[in-house]
Specification:
heterodimer; A: alpha+beta; Beta-Lactamase; 3 domains; seven-stranded antiparallel β-sheet; five-stranded antiparallel β-sheet; 51% helix; B: alpha+beta; 15 helices
Amino acid sequence: MRTLRVRFAAMLATAAVVPLLTYGAVSVYSLREGTRRTVTDGNLNVARQVGEQIRRYISTNLQILHSLAADLDSAGLSPDQQDRIFKNYVLRFPEFRELTAFDAGGRPVATSRIGAPAVAVPGEDATELYGVRMSPVFVDNDLLPTAIVAAPIGRAGRGAGWLVGEFSIEELWRLTDRIRVGASGYAMVISPRGGLLAHGNPEERPRVARGESLASDPVVAALRSAAPGAPQVLERPGRSGEPMLVVGVRVPDLDWMVLVEQPTREAFATARRHERDLIAAISLALLVMLLAGLVWGRSLIQPIRELIRGTEAIADGRLDERVRIRSKSELGRLGDAFNTMAGRLGELQEDVRKQERHAMFGRVAAGLVHDLSHPFKNVQNNCRLIVKMHDDAEYRELFRRTIDREFAQIKRVFEDLRNIARPMPMEHFPLDLNRLAGDVAESMRANAEAAGLTIVMEPEPGALYVEGDVFALSRVCRNLVMNAIEATAPTGRVTIGTAAADGRAMLRVADTGCGIPAGRIETMFDDFNTTKRQGLGLGLAITKKIVDQSGGTISATSEVGSGTTFVVSLAQIPAPADGLRGEAGG
Amino acid sequence: MDDHRGSGEHEVGVGQPHREQGDSLLPGRARARAATRPWPRRLTPRLVLAGTLSAFGCTGPSSGPAPAAAPREPITLTIGVPQSRQIDPNHGAPVVANNLAFERLTTSDAEGRTQPRLLEGWSVSGDGLTWRLFVRPGVKFQDGTPLTAHDVKRTFDEVIADPNSRNLRVCLPNVASIVAASDREAVFTLTRRCSYLLDDLDRAISRSSADGASTVGTGAFAITSSSDEEVRLEANRHYHAGPLAIDRVVVRPFDTLRTAWAGMMRGQVDFLWEVGPESAEFLSDRAAVEVRSFLGFYAYALMLNSARPPFASPEVRRAFDMAVNRAAIVQQALRGRGVAADGPVWPNYWARDPRAPAAAFDPAEASALLRAARRGPVEFTCLVPANFSILERMALLVQQQLSEINVRMRLELLPLDAFNRRILSGQFDAAMISILGGPYATIFHRFWHSAGETKRWNFWGYRNARVDEALDSALEAASEREFREAIRRFEVAVRDDPPAVFLAWNQTVQAVSRRYVVPAEGAGRDAVYVLNRWQLRQPGSAAR
């Protein structure tokens, strides 16, 4: 049954569970990877768009400044006119908080300021963008991101002076402020040197004010070392230790970097939710499948178990046992067939029993008739004679002996029957098997001679002690010798021998009779089983019971036409001390 | 805690270009406070206590912060004052500290009505000549000595004895006598009816400490040390409104807003007293900081010197008034954090007529008016205080807008001292300043009433009989209706004959750490006024 269950489970696993699990694993992996790619690409797009807007914002303003500076020289404006233009310009374009023109000697020519200019041409740390010098971005005293930008005046190139502006890059902050990726994803803008220029998270703005450097940030470091345009994607802990998905791109032309940072738990929340849903669905399907398999398996295995139980019951002889299989399938029909078969077997067994009872009764009756008819006949005949010869003293004596003998015979028949029904009580004492065999041989010698046979005694030298009931074992020996005499034709020979080997004492009775067919040997020790044409057939059965009760074994070998040999094997014991021996061992 | 802005020790000054509603040094420093009119009908003796229960900051000890149940770590609040926001270096941190240390007799509510502070109430005789002021019981100076009517008498006797101080007030020159009738009652006797008396009494009440080593007030916090780096204050354990949630206050000036803000971000500053409109946008949306704003009492204005030729003509001034696009100025100079000004009266003032028409922006009409008034082009020089970017930007905007009506406005940037000297001496055509417009009507009197025997703060030679009549009517109004009507006439007269181009009312921005809860009565006004009622935010309570 275990094998059947194992095979059924294996079949279920092979056919359903493994494919389903495989499908689930592949689906989860695909979903995870797909969503990760989608989220990453989305965040990269956000970063690129932010970068592009920054680039456009910066380039537009710088190009405006550049154009203004280029036209300043050729327009032939007076300083006052330039002054007015600058003032109007800063009022119109709040990105420029100050515009001041310097001549080639560095002296201010015109300015949007009411008083002295506050700006100067950026120094060595400036970068060149769109023909304009731009200082590093700094946070001014009003907390606004600012850069000083300077464009050469005139179209002829440098030499005519500079138009210098205080460029407020507030829009940079507004731009990053507007960027929200999910609920907690923010954009950051990083300068080429790694300085934090803008952070979309209001809580992180102090870092901007402090001019914090992100040069050591792995994404920034990777961006700085990678080829322009190559995006970077990394998962790293955020400042709070929470894992973050960080994507970064470089802003074209400006060499600035835009990072978009989002907690991974949020970035992949949808994927994880779908993943959980998928796993739940697959688990549910798996559970349903297992439950269905269990139910179906039980419906399949249960009838088989029932059939096995029924079969075992039949094998145990309980032919009234029936199986209960409630199914209309083949198994149900198999159960019905089994029950029909069992019922039929019961009927057949009952028939056999009846026949056996009848046969037994006939055999017992025949045996009794056989065993008792002769004594009764002798008694009847002698009774008739005694009526006539009652005054003959010699005959009366003969009559007495005859009557005693025949009743003794009748009594033995009854004793045999009683011993079959109820084993006789035995008393075990040490006895000499050689002596017991010799006594029986002597007592049976007259019967043998009457049958024209010779009894030969072949004892083991010395005494051969066993433990047993002397009368019971004498009967064993006598039965075997009597059977040999009866089975042997005149002139034949009956040999009674004893032997010792391997701690066993053996009694052997062999004849030169007709032998027993091999098929009968196995059953010849059963009750009422005889090879003789008449009689109860209880001799060998009683013989075997006595041997069994004595702890020994009895076996027979026979060859039809040559004779039969019976061997009784008993445990040999050492010679006992005097007073402990049985009668035969006397 | 009172809402005055100075110690009251500097009573003279010129048109103050500073931007917050304090008044520590210049006109703002010595600002008048237009109290709720003490109408005889209303101020009967039976009504002496009226308003004391509802007066903000005047609740009794039982309504103050709950006393601490167990010893706790001292709570220190640090106030950061960006000095770059102050044109006058003496302004800012010292004024904030004084506001915490010294209280005044009265205060104002959100509409500028006078409410009792150190006074429990007052009464006025039917003829308006006798004022009985009742000192709040239980008020003690920081050294533990009780505040009495004698302290009131002493304080104002000193003011009246000083001509410079006395003449800046409207009603004090008319005080015939001050008598301390008892420890709680001071009686002011006037020579003429003067409804602004309570505004004139808006002055810190202080005295020398018992040991004579310092000056003590009745404020919630007492100054324990003062240096250029910081002013330290300790909670006044005798404070009459009960225990305070804050044990110590440190008022710390910062060179720039940036350094102040950085201090706040580092947790070294809990309260940023003033944030410019440029930066307010970027301070918002932070979980740790509450950004609050309120409409200040100051208006940005282009003051026109009526004593000088270009502006002696009311038509020219009116043309200027019509030529300026205030909405554009609010948007471009204040980034939308302000309210266009249509006159000298604070927009929230209770007596203001909300139906009064606003100044119209009409460059064409302005140009026509100007052509009719003058044959030649108008040229003038406008003084601009240095290092104040908003005024500078406003000046540029006004310059640009006036050029549209063919007016040439030259700009002259001056350091504050030079700026003040020029204003005081009348050596100017025009000046960009911020000027008080509230909360009390006495302000209007001080600024715009024709100069009489005392000049007060009318440094611009403004003379207008209708204005004088309206302000005098307000001064002597016998009812609230009369007062409203007088103020309405004043606004109309000023609109017809503007002494200045009032540009915009400043929206002041402050940032408060969310560790603290500013009480609801602090809404719409300087949170310093209600610092005595600040509470620590309970852990777990909503931060926003």
